[in-house]
Amino acid sequence: MKKITSYLPILEWSKGYNRLTLTSDLIAAVIVTIMLIPQSLAYAMLAGLPPEIGLYASILPLIAYAIFGTSRTLAVGPVAVVSLMTASAISQYGGTDALTAAVTLALLSGFILLLMGILKLGFIANFLSQPVISGFITASGLLIAASQLKNIFGVSIHGDTMIDIMSGLWSQIHAVNWITLALGAGSVVFLYFSRLRLKSCLQAIGVNGRSADILTRAAPILTVAITIWLTTAFDLGNEGVSLVGAIPQGLPAPKLPMVDFELIKILIAPAFLISLIGFVESVSVAETLAAKRRQRIVPDQELIGLGAANIASAISSGYPVTGGFARSVVNYDAGAETPAASIFTALGIAVATLLLTPLLANLPQATLSATIIVAVLSLVDFRSVARVYKYSKSDFSAMAATILVTLGFGVEPGVVSGVLLSLILHLYRTSKPHMAVIGQIPDTEHFRNIERHDVLTDDSILSLRIDESLYFANRRFLENRIEELVAKNASIKHLVLVCPAVNLIDASAVESLEMISHRLNNLGIQLHLSEVKGPVMDRLQRTDFLKNFKGSVFLRQYEAVMTLQKKA
Amino acid sequence: MKKITSYLPILEWSKGYNRLTLTSDLIAAVIVTIMLIPQSLAYAMLAGLPPEIGLYASILPLIAYAIFGTSRTLAVGPVAVVSLMTASAISQYGGTDALTAAVTLALLSGFILLLMGILKLGFIANFLSQPVISGFITASGLLIAASQLKNIFGVSIHGDTMIDIMSGLWSQIHAVNWITLALGAGSVVFLYFSRLRLKSCLQAIGVNGRSADILTRAAPILTVAITIWLTTAFDLGNEGVSLVGAIPQGLPAPKLPMVDFELIKILIAPAFLISLIGFVESVSVAETLAAKRRQRIVPDQELIGLGAANIASAISSGYPVTGGFARSVVNYDAGAETPAASIFTALGIAVATLLLTPLLANLPQATLSATIIVAVLSLVDFRSVARVYKYSKSDFSAMAATILVTLGFGVEPGVVSGVLLSLILHLYRTSKPHMAVIGQIPDTEHFRNIERHDVLTDDSILSLRIDESLYFANRRFLENRIEELVAKNASIKHLVLVCPAVNLIDASAVESLEMISHRLNNLGIQLHLSEVKGPVMDRLQRTDFLKNFKGSVFLRQYEAVMTLQKKA
């Protein structure tokens, strides 16, 4: 029986809570709140949802994760890649249908994560290889940045692949709204500058470290404030600048989402991919931060934490959330000690939702797009593409496929093709295992590869050492290799498979051994085994293979050769 | 440059052709023709096509395979499982649309196989594990037999899953046509008896071996003749017995099939699965037979042979074909020496199509269904299900999933879920590799598992031997294992990964090593490697990992410990 605290990490960390931790957590919460307000609005827009949905998804989910999650510093909420995936999953719906679809997606994702956590299926995330994840995130970053250009240029285009977006932009180039472009491009430049230089500039003019830091983090909210003032002062809404518009004031009452089975059938596959990508992104951030402080995170409990966060998002009219990289690093750097920081952040966002929403009506969409563009460009990582290319062409091909399919056909085909290709390439690599014909080193009981050592062999006995587990993907290779060896060596009477490195023989390979033995018998050759590992032998003893097997199973290769030489 | 004969095996085997081989091939051809006529009609009906299509698919494809295939005795044509898969793929079409869809399927399958052959992609078939193939064939056999019951009972039902078929039969039980049932059940009993006993009975009454054999093989065609005579003599067509009806006389003129891109988009996935299953079935038959005579077949050239056969089928208004088990064994047993036997069989079928089709109008459909039922029951292999269950629960679960999904949802979901499940289970098995903390055996330079041997260790040095290649599916396991070890041993200053059994480190695992090294450095521990294999080292040298790596890479573990002990 697991201890209750392992399911409720909050019981663990809340024990030692004191004034010092409280101060650290409060400061971190203020900084993260300032950062999260424009981000939440922007990512909701990226997902194709009204901006307030982003705020709703940044309150209860944070509290749920603080109760169930194992990371001390992970900051949960709407993130760029998951928002893009949400946009792609709900793109066929409009108006309130889109809201219902988003809530259903969060609910499904929550239950999928929860179930995976309870069944301890966290290992499924291992099927996403590093090149596939990194390729997918780079491609998503490019796609997200491109998708925001329409708001920066003030034009209206449709489609969610790179080609659609680019050809759409090109065809609309005559309709650019220059005021929107000035606001958007200005915001991008300012945000980019503040990310790279603002802190050091402030420090150079004498602002102390922490204040410089807070001011830098406040750059997005400052951009929001300035552009709202500009649109209001010069009535830019009437000049064709698209504004966020009226946002309902107040918090949504928590309510159980309606369950529509037709919708669930359509959304279950995207929900699974969103859960998987969200989990992988979140866990890698959490592990990186935990390692710095010698803390540990528990992946299966993380599934439960993220599952709870998504269910919380669903009951507060939100959309899928996960742990975000940028905001978690900010939270960590700002000194957050415990998940209480996230609870304070949630309270901050709740207050903002209650008080600030009326101010946001005049916010230009271009400002939010600028926030997104600057945030996601850090996801684009061409250096890691180059590194993988240099290291392994096979890993690179999975990565390239993921990037190209994501850009060309969208996020879901992108992930799926990357995962399938890396599985196939891995199986291909292990489908041709190393095998060596071995002979005896004179005056010893040792056997080595005949191609590398001067060894004794016997024309009537051929010994083949197999340096890999035998399973369905490489059994045909074994069959062919033996067929070739037998065709080349006409005088063979005994063939010994030497198995010290065979950790597993699956049912397909047992079938192959039967077939090989049968075929060899037809040719007057007897198959034998030697140095079979204990667990493998136990398993073979449960089959008919050994019952019908006319050869011997030798404990040691030396014994095999001695016995067979006497027979010959 | 490959020799032309390797692409055209006919140039090879036709060289030594003489009167003796001719006689053997002719006799085999007569026996196979007699067997193939009712089977071709029956399988076409199973595929939901007019019976003559089965004959068309048994002429040119045989000749094409004789030219391009590498097996001397494989008999190509319509087979049960591929016919069922065709039925499932074209079930939404009726009338001439169904014919067009079948031809398109053959054409697509031909090009897919040809392309796989040219690109040497035969290894893709290795992804079908033995339990999945065998489960799929058993389930298909059951499904095919069940689907034929409607013709035996003389009722009309729809649907192609086990549940649909069985509930359909149940609801139609009042409408059974008793004459049809008598004909059908009588045929089943006679065919089953002749398969099991006829040969030995005939031999007991003094018929010689070869004649008894031919008479036994003629049982299906005899059943066809008798039931035609019965329906004609007693005018059973007017008693509600469903007959085959008028069959167009003559051979179809070869013509290039029309290409409809909409149809291709729909049929490409089923065509791929049909190609894969057909190839696997055909190759395993061909390999079994070739091994008996010390001949070899070349899988990649087999793809070209089967591809040519399917394209030939498409241009002769046929449907997908492959090498069949039963007929190939008959061909082999009847003494076929070369593919010329198949060419003679093709001529035999062509003559039959020209002359016999008018006689088939009064053939009851129940007779053909009886032929199918008796033929496919040999596909059902519960013993192999039991064997796999006993040997490995993990292999069995893939097999059970394949069987249940095939029976419950149809052939395509069945294969796909079986393949995916066996891939996932394999990755799961290799995702937790064996690793051992090792220490030095006193007074030697050898190192062994500390849990099994009395060995010397050093509190500040921890050596971990990894007994598996490192790749994306097991990298997290390595990270966690190291994290645990470090948490347990507070006095560690150096951690050595001992890699004599690591055949591969993929890009994901390199990323992990970087992360591990970085995290250990944060904790004041230095990572080192030892006994890295040559090819793995070559590859690592192409990365930044070694450039930024502060630890050492030792050639031998003994050297590692000696050096690090001096440092400590």
Automatic annotation (TrEMBL), chains A, B:
Entries under Pfam families matching the protein: STAS, Sulfate_transp
Tell me which InterPro entries the record gives: SLC26A/SulP_dom (IPR011547), SLC26A/SulP_fam (IPR001902), STAS_dom (IPR002645), STAS_dom_sf (IPR036513)
Supply the alphabetized keyword list: Membrane, Transmembrane, Transmembrane helix
Matching entries from SUPFAM superfamilies are given as: SpoIIaa-like
| Membrane topology value | Multi-pass membrane protein
Q: Where are the transmembrane segments?
A: 20-37, 43-67, 74-93, 99-119, 131-149, 169-193, 214-234, 266-291, 303-321, 341-361, 368-386, 398-425
Per UniProt, subcellular location reads as: Membrane
Domain (STAS) ranges:
451-568
Q: Which PROSITE patterns match?
A: STAS (PS50801)
KW Transmembrane helix (keyword) present: yes
List the protein's name: Solute carrier family 26 protein
**Species for this entry:** Paenochrobactrum glaciei
